[in-house]
Batch of 4 targets.
Target 1
Amino acid sequence: MRIQPLMVIITVTAAIAALALLAAPASAQEASTALAAPAAQPQPPVPGAGYILPQLSPESKACAECHKTQSPSIYEEWGASKHFRGNIGCMECHRANKDDVDAWLHEGQYISTIVSPRDCARCHAREVEEFTASHHSKAARILGSLDNTLAEVVEGNHGMITPAFPEGVSAAAVNGCWQCHGVEIKVLPGGKLDPATWPNTGIGRINPDGSEGSCSACHSRHQFSVEQVRQPENCGKCHMGPDHPQIEIYNESKHGIAFRANIDKMNLKNAKWIVGEDYSAAPTCATCHISATKNMPVTHDVGLRISWNNRPAVSVRPEVADAKLGLPTKDVTWQQRRENMKQVCLSCHNVNFFDSFYKQYDELLNLYHDKFAKPGLALMDTAKPLLKPVEFSNEIEWTWYEIWHHEGRRARHGVSMMGPDITHWHGTYEVAKHFYTEFIPQLEELIQKGLESEDAAKKEAAAALQAKLDEVLNSDNHKWYVNKMDPAEAEARKKRQDEFKARYEAKKEAPAK
């Protein structure tokens, strides 16, 4: 942690304020006590809200004078920020100790390029503590996952050569996965950063000081606009696309439509910004997952209001996922998290609406799990002896991956955010289409080849796969596919279709006489 005090003492009160800023007090209350002696010293108005210095430090003044000419946009953005109004300048954030691994000498001062969450915690301790306990801060742990195998091996090569990667690294991973999820920053001699790992504002970035995360993933430097961070597009940089299209779902939903129609009523610059008090036209991503309500404070742990984790092939409760990551929120039950979200929803909706929505959501997940995800996983597991051993060297692996990772997620995310078209046409329809027209035929091809093989183990594996496929296709969820729909159900469906035609189909007009 870079806790070196300001090198030049401005005044007694300025020195006290600067030392408090850079010493990372354990709590806002302790900070208030430490700063109470000088009567003129400003105090943080809200716990965890940071500190205000009496005047800009000489070092930061020097920085500002240079950047005003050399990088005027940075100077302009900083000038519009709360940091500027609080006399927090370049050195208060970028100052480094000489022995910091990423420190480098710049105009007579040791600085670091990256301002890490540990640095931000000197003033924003509560926010960083919450963020560090969240899934966001652990996003770089994707680096060992199946997704990264795709980017590094299947899509990529070793063509990007840098000092930290002399044997090469995949440009697909560098410019894709790592930019949202983060990467371990590699520091070169002299404190410079390797171009394969910087620039990078991935939200789970592993920083040279050992901290995880990037505050600027959401709070764009150097204005750190609260108005911008509350915009849905702020989340849409990463939460979009075929496998997690949250921004597309939001834009389709009534929430997104209401936001665009009433953006001038959203009061986005308001400091307090409590739904139901400061605005009511529409919720944004921040409203539901982060921002304050009448009964809850702002939180930087985005998982405390969600009751399903829809990332895996079969959704899990968030406390299960948190336990795997060793997060303290493993002890927060999904029921409590749903109750937290209820406090948000009741700002605009009643209890019946809330309960009925979650009934719809839960049942869509049950459908997807029971009909496609669980049988699909069982079939893929049974098919393993018949597959080539290298990941993604089998066509069926691509089919199954897109069924659960793309289409299945789209269905689940779509219903979670009230996006009916993405839930159905881009979700469950695509899941069903590819399950029946690609996945099953590919399984049948594996079975046929296995049964025709001279390898006894292959024959045995093929027989086991055939038995599992027969079990799945003869279950209630799939028996229609093998023409075994219950006659009573078939008759009931025909009756409903006939009633629909009689009620809605246009009747031919009688010919004119």
Target 2
Amino acid sequence: MKQPKHLMQLFSFSVICLICLHYLLVPTNKGYGIQETISPTISAPNSGAEPPIEGQSPAKSIPAKSSLGTFSPSDPPAPFVTIRVRVSAQASPNDELEYRILIENHSPAEAHQVRVRNNIPTNAKFLRATPPPDSLEGELIWKLGSLPGNSSKEIKLVVMVTGTGEVDCISRVQYEHGQAVKTQLASPLLIKMTGPIQAMLYDTLSYQIDIFNTGNSELTGVQLTNIIPDGLEFLTSKPSTSGENPLIWNIGAIPSGQSKRLEFQAAAKKTGKFINKATVTTTSGIKKETSSKVEVGEVKLALNIGGPDRRNINRPTSYQITITNSGNQLVRGIKVSTKLDASTQFLAASGGGRNENGEIKWLIPQLAPKQRQTVQMVIKPTIAGTLKNRTEVTADKIPTGWQVEKITIFENNNGLVAEIDKSIDPMELGEQTALTLRLINNSPNPIKNLILSAISPDTTIVTEGRGPTNFSRQPDKVGFLPLPSLEPGKEVTYSLFLQAKKTGDGTFRLEYSADEGISGKAEETISILPSSKAPASNEPPALP
């Protein structure tokens, strides 16, 4: 049977559509979908190399330029504000109608300049509103300002029906939404200053300023101005300038892709933090600024020497020399020296000390701020008299050294002789020192029932005592129980431990007595300094 012609045409058209649909739909890893074309990747251009500095090779890198921005930025959410109105569906003349107008922001983004407009119906009279409208002329207007994200605001409007028919009330909301973007314009003028960040008092500081033209045209009328801060003093520059503050260099023109370098030196005259500020300008009005900050410190060393006030001749005598870095800068190359009197013999030195032609020398590589180190020397005087031990310390970048001296009186005593040695001298507040107390029998006879007692200054407190007999405490002093006998040519040793509790100088007094009316005393000065909280730097142990 012959098919109608129009049915055959419809069938052919359907087949063609199916074929086209087959080729449009391509298999993907998630089933069938519309094939997408892939856009070529956009890559940011590489920043150019820094123009070569005049007379310099190779060229350095230009300081990093500002970001090129984002090619596919993510937009922040947009505010979405709606308005809803609710009111009674029926009313009579002279009735009050209350409209509840709800303004909602359904987005997390804040909406700005939110305004609500409401007409006054022709058959109604405005009575009141909460909040009151900002305008009553022609229509009611509320200026709500900004509406935070995911928040709402309600307006209650009350009118009185004054006529018949329907009361038509229309409420509208308006708000603003916008985006702000910035495009930075690359400046062809760049400036870079390099200089020290730390220095010592009286150091010579070297600064270098490079000016680059990264543009495609010549920069003309280039002028550089540098303000030298108070505390630094200008010395010289290349190229030269007048030297008056501010320093000014008229550079002239810088061709495209070229640069200029200026150098100057300044002396550190004060301690503290100082900022060099440089400004470069051109005749076209371009202006760039840079700065370099430096902290100038000062080397400060504190030197103390401790030792006995009195001692018998031909006895080992120990002296402690303490060097403290009391400044805020690292000190290097510290040299300590003590000249020996011709009447003394050198016995030993700690901390690498050595005897060079009658002068004891130490070398301390460095001391950090608030750090200290103690060295010790032991000598034996052979002649009675007053001996002045003078010690000097010098270091790198110190114009002059420091000197201190310790005076000791050397005697030639027979009979019972007392000695006092201090492990730390001077002490710092809170420190503890060990006093070694010796009694030497220089007589030809034994000494019987030897009693030893001590009175410490009020700047210290005795924490412990050790000796050949038991230690005892009394209200005003400490002591030891009697020693039955001390033979001729022999000595006995006691130890007292003192804690520093107050700064200042005080006198430690040692008293002794024995049979046959033997008695005597010995005194030593105890010096206590404020605590520097300084850690010891490889402090050597006390010499015997």
Target 3
Amino acid sequence: MKKIYLILAVAAIGLSGGFQATGGRLPLEPTDRATTSLKKSGKTLPSRISAKAPADATWENAGTGMWKEGLFDKILPAVAGSAWEVSFEQAKEYPGYYRVLPYAEGTPIAETLQQADNENYVYINAANPERVYIEDFFAFGYIMFSNLVAENEWNNYSAYGTLKDGIITFGSNSFAYTTYDLGEFAYCNNSGYFQIALPGSELKDYTLELDIPACAENDEMQISITAGEDIKTVKLLTSLGYFRISDSNNQTVIERGETFDLAKGYTTLVLGADAPFGIYTTIVVGLDEGGNVAASRCAYSHIMEHNDADWRATGTAEFPDAILTTVYQEAVPQLLTCEVEESVSQPGRYRLVNPYAGHSWAQAYDDFVINHEHNHYIYINACNPTQVYVEAAPLGINTDGEAMLYSLAGLYAESGQAAYAQQQGYFGKLTEEEGEKIISMPDGSLMFAESKYEHGTYFNVGQDFLVVVKPGQGAVEEIEATGEAYAPAEYFNLQGIRVANPRAGELVIERRGSKVTKTIIK
């Protein structure tokens, strides 16, 4: 299944504390806002790139080094972290300028693509060890990679690499890529694996992988970690809430977290029946032999609600799939139906029961629906009809790992920043029409993650998210009127404005003569 993510993951925002399995409050630091797009400021995609290295440079053989792949981690995930030898040339007149052909004949990328790139050099400016950068380049003549630095016209970014002991290291999301088909930039090196070992230096293995189930079965999380041989210590910390990796959060994990047993490879975190339900973030930090941060990862899991007695059946829900169709090219628009329940203690809070069990992929792929001992839900908090949001929860489906859903409005509302969410237009709304409740969310306001795609990073997704809660059975409730059954159809939106060509999945008013029907276009 081919993804069509062209937008970026949101950053975490404001929680003041969190649950920690070892006791106490976890003072993780949130980032300050959500990012929904990546724009190349003041520059369009060129037809070709001219090197910025000095034109009068004399290039001399500098020896053999290593290239550890990270740029292709979205396009060819299987090669991320692989390393191979490359030949270096250095500018004689300008120390610190290098060039290489990392995807030439015989390299793993060339073998995977069955195509070698023996022409497009990668130019590396390592004159300043604290501000190493790579000039824009076209790999294979059609995939443009761009280091997010001012020298490449990313005026609000400073994702420089660093040179230490002959090793150039670039952090996660320090590059963007695009093609003429994509038309806009998306992050790469999300893995943070991209490193370059200059001739005479030794490349370290700082691989770090974290695996946690999206659902915490029986209020327990089994956490599995694998680490490269040059990571000597791993620190681990789990907190209630949604957080992201940052330097300050890494430091908190180092100071407050537990030391992970690398020889054992896994640990079971027992949260207990009294642990609050919701999304939990686990951050792990790998340290080198000197105690320095070599790598870090985060992953998300969920504690499910236990009090089923608080929920009552309230009818059925109809909704067009507004998630998978914005992620996968081959996802066919379809109308889904499931049971819906409402909270007794919090009227207006709904949950859709096993919402994707009726999806066509459930029949096409044996492992699409995840079979746990509990149901899976989409939680919709519509207690305030003008400030509706989707709460964090696993969807109970396996696409590229376990799929999870959240919303920007929920992220901010649950952290006490509802005013900001309102200002940004992140909230959805609930209206009532003829006894049916209609819930909608703004396009791009939902957050979707898959546990095995980019380490479970959340992306902004969702288009035409609309849920119709019906108090009884039946696909369409008719508003009776006299008229002809076979008259030409006219369509109107819920505000009474004529719609010439309604889209599949759109809720409309259909009029045939004097007979009026509310329906979802199929």
Target 4
Amino acid sequence: MIVRQFITWVRTAPAGERAEATRCLARAWLQSDLSEDDRAAAEGALLMLLDDASPLVRQAMAEVFAHSMDAPPAIIAALAVDQASVAVPILEHSPLLLDSDLVDIVATGNAETQCAIARRFDLPPSICAAIAEVGCPSSTLELIENRAAQLAPFSVARIAERHGHLAAIREALLTMDDLSAAVRLSLAQKLSDTLTQLVTARDWLKPDRARRIADEAMERSTVNIAAQTRGADLAALVAHLRSIGQLNAGLILRALLSGNIELFEEALVDLSGLSRSRVAAIVHDRGGASLNALLAKAGLPASTYRAFRVALEASSEVGFIGSVGGATRLRRRMVERVLTQCETSETVAEPLLLLLRRFATESAREEARLFCDDLAADDFVGALSAQAVEEAGGYEAYQAADAVNAYNADDVYEASEDYETCDTYETENTYDTYTDHPQYRDQIETPRYIDDYAAAGEYATRDTYAVVNSDPLYHDNVRAEEYVQRDDVSVQNYVDTAMDRYDGYDRFDRNYYYERRIAA
């Protein structure tokens, strides 16, 4: 009954309301306990809404059914081939779609639908291969970034072949941990071709010069990639080089002069068809006849035999580089020795001499660049060391200052503990100073002179006048004689004045004592 009313209402309702009602009906079909009749009626209504003129209605239905295993298969199949805005949720998430259906949609769909399929979780190899073969660049980029996709090596190689000239895809491929050496070499070749086209289109370089520079760069890149490759991956790289026509005498000689003995042996194994152990024995034996036979079986020109033999002899004296970085650049001593030997030989062709001279120039420039880099690195390390020493010196000075401050604090603390002793000592020194002061002695001697005068009844000039006339007390004695001649009131006033002066000195002594204590 409700579904019948819904069908009647939906014919005249606005598009937004129809879309919301369709979303509610789809949820009810998935989650509600409908009877068999109501469920069949609801499914019929949903099938009818597939023909709705508004894509909002179909999009609302697709968003509800996208993640469900219980969605009606007929509705899922219809929504998967709808327009992109409706089909994207179904293509990206629906577990009801078959691999064959997805492969067909990849082949016939647009970029949005291909990208939606490339984002699917746990994408099988068949669909990955379909996207790698016919997918647009954006869908292949989505596929590379989908770490849950089961991307086969041949699919990766196909992506590099089709879209390796695009920087975004190159960078995404190079982030893959298990990327083969052949694919890395293919990406380097794509980049070389792109740069060559750029400089020739802008007329920065002539086409032949640009191609020659690109070929030299590709040779260095090949040796660099091979130096980081071992085992079966190296054999696959050599086979790839042979298939694209780059496994030639110049590349093999560069590998040997760079110290990459593994690439040299693997190239001879692939070209000659001999076993790896047999080739290794001949190479390390360095016999003239056997080595020439091996090089001839590998199809290398006879004019290069002497260069290969001299290079192997030089390698036995100089030794091979064990590091990856050492096996990626030409070794100057070996190149110069091979060039010297070949220049005196009549069997060496002129193109080989030109190649060796180019190798000599390249090795000299590379050695000079590395020397300058080492000097710059030493200067940088020296500057860092000087800065570190300066900072360490500043820190040590800071620690020394803290130690001095702590020592001063300890001295103050010890002084505060010995305060009473120091105070007593300073008081004694102050007492001795004021005892010797003339005015202080005057305060003590004046009352005694007055008492002596009262006992004798008269005051007489003493013989000591001549001795003490230079003493400051002399003036006080004269003044005391004048006071004796006065009446008792004057004498009493003099005594009062002298005692006031004594009290003043006593207050001065106490103030000085307090100031010394505060300072301590």
